[in-house]
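Incident log entry.

Two folding requests arrived from the same account within the same minute. Monitoring flagged them as a possible duplicate submission, but the sequences differ. Recording both here for audit purposes.

Request one:
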Amino acid sequence: MKIIACIKRVPTTDLQPRVAADGKSLDAAGVQYMTSFYDEIAVEEAIKQKEKHGGEVTVLTIGSAEASKEVREALAKGADKGVILVDNAWGGRDPLATAKTLAGKITELGADLVLLGRVGTDRDNASVGPMLAALLGWACVTDVVGLELGDGKGTARREADAGTETYAFALPAVITCQKDLNEPRYAGLKGIMAAKKKPLEESPCPPATSQVEIEKLALPPARKAGRIVGEGAAAVPALIDALRNEAKIL
């Protein structure tokens, strides 16, 4: 089975962001990066399915050459090879431009299953996976918390507002992964050493036209400092007055 896990390099979630001088992007100075949280779950599921059914796992990403760090981490956990479509302006691509580029490379590589995180932890769009499936003409199940494969087909359980839904589908398919699907493993020393010898392909990313352009990026206004209006039951009237006349929420 040929499995592709798509990942995205994103700023760490504890980042204290600063807007760059152009007013449209983040100041890159001092920014630390990581694999998007849900994409780590996709990598883990790809490796688990390979261990169960055999085959190979390719990790695919669009980003700068520095994304080799995140790809090597996936290789250390058990993926077989990595592919980076190098684009230093990857952060400016909208979901459709990203999906089109991924679809082209996946068609070239060939795959039975493509796994992605349900959402990128930087943009929170949750749209690349379904768009990718539509472009490929493949089945798609999103927010998956349980996955079983066999004999060219699969069954997936996904979270929905009313509970858990179960879907049957034929391969090839695109699956987006929710946090309850698995627990990502840590790379051991043996895996880290082996990852250095695994193939990592870098090639120029095909140009793409985004339909969405960032016009302005701004941080939210700073929150006003809180204050203590009193103690115990005696503070209730002052609290109600503040909520009604200052906060305007009563």
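Request two (distinct sequence, not a duplicate):
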Amino acid sequence: MTQKIDKISQTVRYRSGPGYDHENFLFTPLNQRQPITWPNGAKIAWCVYLYLEYLELDPAAETVRDPRYGGALGSHFPDYLNYSAREHGNRIGFWRVLEVLDKYDIKPTVAVNAMLADRYPRMIQECIDRGWEIAGHGISASQMITSELSEVEEKTVITRSLNTLEKISGVRPIGWFGQDYSQSTRTMELLEKLGVHYVADFPNDDIPYNTNYGNLICMPNHSEWDDTQLMAIRRLMPWRWSDVVSEAFDYLYNEAHPSGSVMTLSIHPWLLGQAHRIKYLDAALEKMSSYQNVWQTSAAEVAKHFQKSC
């Protein structure tokens, strides 16, 4: 039996049996998965994740921030340059991305933080009018969930996010995307209690899987070809990003594992919506959309189908 110490609460957590050293989910290797048949005999499911985020110019002092950031994204206050670069995604980039998604009839899952939904309801309405799924994505791009938050504080963050999106969209989100994949040791339990059906915070699988929290499941979310990971952090050129995501799609399509592979594609308008990058998003979507027998759908629909198949 393995022992794990929660440094915040100083409580001891135990995990029994083979697998990861935590209680979130079991370790099930690929060759032990049960077969899953996607609708209409599709070889793979394909989910596009569109992130709509507001970044605070000067977050409150008590905010749990990404340690990489000083000001908005830099080391001084106010950091107008980096704040404005992010805002370009909401003023310009989103509308360019919208046109490309419409061009290929892509139905993404839209991860939205509460501050963006409050400030820019027109953006949310564009997604609602297209019938796109809206998922929870915290409060702002500068506020992360970590074990520095108390249980009450974390519950407040999640509840505020879900309530804000429900008020604006008319539908309570059933999916959750933590800001920068962030969680505390209690996040999974809180999400399940608050009625969330799936979480997309673990880039550890190509296939949905069950957790140890009721009906809450994990949806794939590939950080290895996330646009911000590759271009903003690793400085990959946009034409190479287009190749990377297309190569990933091609491999998963041809592998077509019986347990139900899922291709995910993350899009941040502040990055891919720039004038020198948008054509590479267009090129990638054109190539992916040319494949036959692909189920392009929302994360919620994949999660629902997975749960029915288990």
